[in-house]
Amino acid sequence: MAKLFIMGIGPGSKEYLTQIAIKAVKDDDITIGSLKAIEIFDDVKKTIVLNIKDLQEKLELVVDLNIEGNNVSVLSTGDPGFSGVLKTIMKINKNKNFDENNIEVMPGISSLQLAAAKNRISWDEANIMTFHGRENISDILKVINNGLPTIALPSKSVKDMVEFLLNNGVNEKRKVTICYMCFMIIYPDDE
């Protein structure tokens, strides 16, 4: 049975790749991911570039290619199970009535792990929130003043989230780790 690998590839640099991710891409038939994600691998055969505009369509193609017998690797920066592609692929797979045992999830180093490590935050003593794909980010206001460190994955830009927090009375000295900062560590020249 062909496999559909959903791989967390870390924050997006070779230094954070796991050996299992490198091997899976080397051995697969087709690799799909963002251009930046694909470019960090050396041994890539056939590729499909994924972007936010056609995400659903490309992920449906991935499942179809796997059903046809291709070993496919889907590259997910961060963690595929936390605001990642895992949920979407599982829904598509279920809608096509295909056996989910063909799907193998390989976590990498998540953006949350990197954000917590860089800021010396213990996970079990932090508010961890994701706003990916959400317009309403007001849930953060419920926990922002509980005294615990807060790590957030923003839905849009860091600037929008900071403005929202300040406009809603959050003290400007309150530390909030927004995971976009992890990408700035890996890609310091990105805007």
Kindly describe this structure.
It is a single chain. The termini are far apart. The longest helix is centred in the first third of the chain and has 13 residues, at 55-67. The radius of gyration is 18 Å and the shape is elongated. It has two domains: 4-106, Tetrapyrrole methylase, N-terminal domain (Cobalt-precorrin-4 Transmethylase, domain 1), CATH 3.40.1010.10; 111-186. It has 191 residues and is α/β, with parallel strands linked by helices. Strand 7, helix 6 and strand 8 form a beta-alpha-beta unit. Mean pLDDT is 83; it is low at 181-191. The strands form two sheets. The protein has a five-stranded parallel β-sheet, with helices on both faces. It has a three-stranded parallel β-sheet with strand order 6-7-8. It is 32% helix and 17% strand.
Overall shape: it is elongated
Helix/strand/pairing class, anyone?
alpha/beta
CATH level-two architecture of the largest domain:
3-Layer(aba) Sandwich
What top-tier CATH class of the largest domain fits best? Alpha Beta
CATH superfamily of the largest domain: Tetrapyrrole methylase, N-terminal domain
| Total number of domains | 2
Tally the helices: what do you get? Answer: 7
Q: How many β-strand stretches?
A: 8
CATH topology of the largest domain: Cobalt-precorrin-4 Transmethylase, domain 1
Strands of the biggest beta sheet: in what spatial order?
3-2-4-1-5
Biggest β-sheet description = 5 strands, parallel
Write a concise synopsis of the structure shown.
The protein has 191 residues and is of the alpha/beta class.
